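So, who can interpret the following?
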Amino acid sequence: MRLATEDLKVRFGGVRPLDGVTLVFESGLCGLIGPNGAGKTTLFNVLSGFVRPVAGRVTADGTDLLALSPHRRARWGLRRTFQQEQVVAELSVAGNLRLAADHLGGTDEGLLGFCGLEDPDRPAGALTLPERRRLELARALVGTPRIVLLDEPAAGLSEAESRALAEVVVAVPEKFGALVVLIEHDVALVGEICESAAVLDFGRVIASGPTAEVLADERVRAAYLGEPA
């Protein structure tokens, strides 16, 4: 799977959250990092169809994603999680997956076990935060995901909980054949699990490529890690 953006621009009044973003994400697990306000979530919103760019292109293996509505993109196989939880507390764990399956098409067979959720009948509102994060991931994997966008899935988790969730995320590309793009503020974790990475700063790409090379880039260390360039 090859997800590509070309000269993406987004304007909110006089603010430019994306200012000419050109990126290519190819197979496996890719990290997307940058300071707060760099444009990471805005990029996810464009990719998933919730924000319309004023200029640019988005393609996935030749499919023009900008021509598809958010619902059609999800049905096509572009899935995402959000910083704000989408779990329905009143439904059971299994009920949340059935709801996603009805919306997205496909089945949820085997997803609970894969994501480490043992009790399908437990009310989602009774889950711990790490369990809710796993349920969010399971919902995104219903059916046949091709691209999975994860927006800070480990936010609020302890280091141990974050590492445990990362073990599941790392297994997604091989099990589902999907491209995974991960927004994550834990740079060390990105360095450990992501094959490639891209860095946004003030709505522009300042580095992209193999993760080790990106994290060693002087511009990245200056913009994100606070070191002089």
